[in-house]
């Protein structure tokens, strides 16, 4: 009976792993859906941003804040992020970095402006970063981590039983393989998804989505000559993402043209 319960829990775990894997926030027509991520993630994002603002130096230089305000105004109109308390802050930091937290908190480093020196390029960066928040990517990773912890506990429990026989060991092996297959590419899938959603956001906001390709082309040159900036380390290879963006461009351009026609 006990063994049956263990096997049953392993099955439930395996099912939970597959149900909380990558869930697309973008359909084949480029329609973006907002993924719920719970009040906890939202308030965590807001309180983290407060801490970051205390820790880092903020720039009020209009050569940075003006273009950000222009781009933010247009992006906020098209990004449906319920209950967002939008805030865009420029930090004095030479590394070309930007980030967005759940709750609508966005940080941009001064170093980014050397690479993203037009509104469209800034929109490409911000669209990408904000989409990580709207697609609940951090939340998905948290679910994964929780499922993994649970799985680890169940596995430990199963191995502790002296009368383990083949079926359970096979299940344990299956779980580990499922975990490795599903978790490792998760962040990559999220990156590709954010690239695509980012182009939709920028297109709907009236920026030519093809500029996203230009952004990654510039960043790839930057990668060749300098140490990889922190926010790019989990990002897929530049050539692959440029290739994937090119393939998605006809859909992004439809959204761009629809916006232009509506003007
Ligand atoms: Zn990203």
Q: What does this protein look like?
A:
The protein has 263 residues and is mainly alpha-helical. The chain is built from nine helices and three strands; from the N terminus they run H-H-H-E-E-E-H-H-H-H-H-H. The protein has helices spanning 2-19, 38-55, 62-78, 119-134, 137-160, 166-183, 186-204, 211-225, 238-262, and strands spanning 87-91, 98-101, 105-109. Strands 1-3-2 form a three-stranded mixed β-sheet, with helices on both faces. The chain is globular, with a radius of gyration of 21 Å. The protein binds zinc ion (ZN). Zinc ion (ZN) is lined by residues 128, 132, 191, 194, 235.
Topology, element by element:
Blueprint: H1 2-19, H2 38-55, H3 62-78, E1 87-91, E2 98-101, E3 105-109, H4 119-134, H5 137-160, H6 166-183, H7 186-204, H8 211-225, H9 238-262
Parallel strand pairs: 1-3
Antiparallel strand pairs: 2-3
The structure holds zinc ion (ZN).
Concise account of the structure shown:
The protein has 263 residues and is mostly helical.
State the main characteristics:
about 260 residues, mainly alpha, 3-stranded mixed beta sheet, about 65% helix, binds zinc ion
Secondary-structure element pattern, one letter each: HHHEEEHHHHHH
Shape: globular
Q: Which ligands does the model contain, each kind named once?
A: zinc ion
**Beginning-to-end CA distance, first to last residue:** 68 Å
pLDDT < 50 runs, ≥5 residues? none
Count the DSSP helices: 9
- Biggest sheet character: 3 strands, mixed
Computed CA radius of gyration, to the nearest angstrom: 21 Å
Strand proportion: 5-15%
Report the mean per-residue pLDDT as an integer. Answer: 80
Count of distinct strands: 3
By secondary-structure content and strand pairing, the structural class works out as: mainly alpha
In percent, how helical is the residue content?
55-70%
């Amino acid at each position: 009976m006990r063994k049956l319960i263990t096997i049953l829990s392993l099955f439930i775990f395996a099912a939970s792993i597959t149900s909380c894997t990558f869930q697309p926030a973008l359909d084949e027509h480029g329609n973006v859906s907002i993924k719920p991520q719970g009040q906890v993630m939202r308030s965590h994002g807001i309180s983290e941003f407060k801490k970051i603002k205390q820790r880092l130096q903020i720039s009020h230089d209009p050569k940075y804040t003006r273009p950000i305000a222009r781009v933010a105004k247009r992006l906020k109109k098209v990004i449906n992020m319920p209950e967002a308390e939008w805030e865009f802050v420029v930090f004095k930091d030479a590394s070309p970095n930007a980030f967005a937290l759940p709750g609508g908190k966005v940080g941009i480093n001064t170093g980014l402006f050397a690479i993203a020196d037009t509104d469209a390029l800034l929109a490409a960066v911000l669209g990408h970063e904000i989409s990580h928040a709207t697609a609940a990517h951090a939340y998905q990773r948290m679910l994964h981590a929780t499922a993994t912890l649970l799985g680890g506990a169940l596995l430990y429990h199963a191995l502790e039983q002296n009368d383990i026989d083949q079926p359970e060991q096979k299940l344990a092996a299956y779980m580990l393989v499922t975990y490795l297959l599903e978790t490792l590419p998760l962040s990559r899938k999220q990156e590709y998804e954010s690239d695509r959603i980012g182009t939709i956001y920028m297109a709907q906001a009236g920026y030519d989505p093809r500029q996203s390709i230009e952004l990654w082309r510039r960043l790839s040159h930057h990668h060749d000559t300098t140490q990889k900036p922190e926010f790019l380390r989990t990002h897929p290879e530049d050539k692959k993402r440029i290739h994937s963006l090119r393939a998605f461009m006809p859909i992004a351009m439809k959204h761009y043209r629809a916006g232009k026609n509506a003007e």
